[in-house]
Amino acid sequence: MNTTQILNLTLSDSVKFHFNNCSHAVEIWKGIQENADIEALHHAYPYILDAVQDFLQTEGIQTPSLTTGFWIWFLTTNIYEEIQAYGWHKCHDDMCRAHAWEGNPDIAGVGMLVTYLLQAVLVSIYLFALITIQVSKISPGSKSQRLRGRYISRILPAIQHSTTQFLSASSVFAVAMLAAALFGSDKERQDSSPITWMLRFFMPLNSLLPVAVLQLAALDMLRRSKGRMFLWLLIEILTVWLLIRSWHSRNSQYEGQYPSDHELFCLEFKSFRVMSIFSWIVASLLIVGMNSYLYFSKTLCAFFNGQSERAQKQQWVFWAIPIIATGIMWAYVLWFVHVTIKIRNHSGKENKDTEWSFGQVLALATWVPFIVDFFYICWENPEKATDGRLMDPYHVIATVDKGEDSEMESLDGENRPGHFERLDS
Question: Whole-model pTM?
Answer without folding.
Answer: 0.75
